[in-house]
Amino acid sequence: MRRLHQIPRTDWQTKVEQVGLTYHSHEDGPYWDESVCYELSREEVNVLERAANSLHGLCIEAAGAVIERGWWERLGITESAIPGIVRSWEQDDFSLYGRFDLGYDGEGVPKLLEYNADTPTALVEASVAQWFWLQDCHPEADQFNSIHERLIEAWRRWAGRTVHFSSIKDHPEDEQTVLYLRDTCQQAGVETRSVYIEDLGWDAKQKRFVDLDLHPVELCFKLYPWEWLWHEEFGVHLAGASVQFIEPTWKMLLSNKGILPVLWELFPGHPNLLPAFDDAAPLSGNYIRKPRLSREGSNVSWVERELLVEETGGDYGAEGYVYQAPANLPDFDGHRPVFGVWVVDHEAAGLGIREDRRRITSNLSRFVPHYFR
Amino acid sequence: MKRSKCIRLVLLGGLSAGALAGCNQSQPPAVNTENVYTNNYFVPGVGYYHAPFRAWYIHPYNHFDPQQQRYFFGGQWAPAPHESITNISPPTIEAAQQAQAQRADVPRGGFGNTSRSHFIYS
Prior knowledge:
The complex is a heterodimer of chains A (373) and B (122).
Chain A: E1 2-5, H1 12-18, E2 25-26, E3 29-30, E4 36-40, H2 42-69, H3 82-90, E5 97-103, E6 111-116, H4 123-137, H5 147-155, E7 162-166, H6 172-187, E8 191-194, E9 201-203, E10 208-210, E11 219-222, H7 226-231, E12 244-246, H8 259-266, E13 276-277, E14 287-291, E15 301-304, E16 307-311, E17 321-324, E18 336-344, E19 347-356, E20 366-368, E21 370-372
Parallel strand pairs in A: 4-21, 7-8, 7-11, 11-12
Antiparallel strand pairs in A: 1-4, 2-3, 5-6, 5-18, 9-10, 13-17, 14-15, 14-17, 15-16, 18-19, 19-20
Chain B: H1 17-20, E1 37-38, E2 42-43, E3 47-50, E4 55-57, E5 63-65, E6 70-73, E7 76-78, E8 88-89, H2 93-102
């Protein structure tokens, strides 16, 4: 694995905007950073792919174990959500995608940092922007990235139905992500409509959600966390409505960092897992403390020899914390990459790399493209 | 080969997200005689618009009941479907008033509030 410097394409901003990556820059600089890239070997890509497939299998087993053993409290899941989760699991409701964040140095074994199973983002950059970058900059090389065609293939099962696509208002990254997913769904021959989360209506007589044109919402891709849906005003209607959301309710079990200690308990010593516990004691003062429910690295604390060495702010943590052993993240001149392996329709489908000078990856980390030979 | 053979974008890139995500209205427009409606325009709690009859009814226009072997239009059942060149019209004053009074309001805004405090995903 190598981190290589290269000259960005002329007018790269326009180039990535043209393929949907309109949110390419932070206030502090570029979020999409093609002044560097990662070169991997085929074997390294195979290792990442195998790790994600293996972890996905473990996660499915762990979700079943949580339901079977009633470990709801360990995941901080609200009681009102439990019947919906169980029903969704028993019906095997369709799951489109997820993203495993892995620590990997190219020599050891990839380790699971967390699983973004419900509302993963950084999709347009992984699936589309870096693919076009590859055509321009390294057309002779390959890339771990068949996300686009795998998404289209996954949507085909809904031919003849209508899928609604929903995100919150005034959030360009979410809107572009959902628009891209809608694009792939439409290319699969499925009828699509869109409605903002805030605009979903509740038709009390018909006991169903409706869009702004009063069309019933029966299948709905939502880029909005389940734990928020359950706690909001319309959450009371979720149990009685006929709508099927994508991602499904059972993904609440996996998007929750409480699943990390569950995985370690069920599969102790698994090479792709880091030791993780519901309390800090077994980790002898060296651990990462993560809120059970949080987003983008918020409220994460990095502790070494009982001393806090790095932490991020935020307002998460009410549902409690989990404690995970640190991974050996590679360090390229002070830049630490995290490998986000995408799973589409239950199989590993691609890779997006984000890097940061800090140890804790956050929403201000940079996305860096990759290729392999 | 682990990369996509080809990536074609139909929606993304060419149009802004906002243009596709709805028109930002918070409530459906009121029913009135200044608007025209097409056959089967549905108003919750009221029914389906039948353009030739300029009013709403419980079943869609020319709805077929296989048990009765009859078609529904304009508030009545008949052995044959109704035929009309009118597929769009304004409602009568009475129909508009009745529809507006009977419509089951669809509350909105019941989701999305938590995002105002957090606003970021993973």
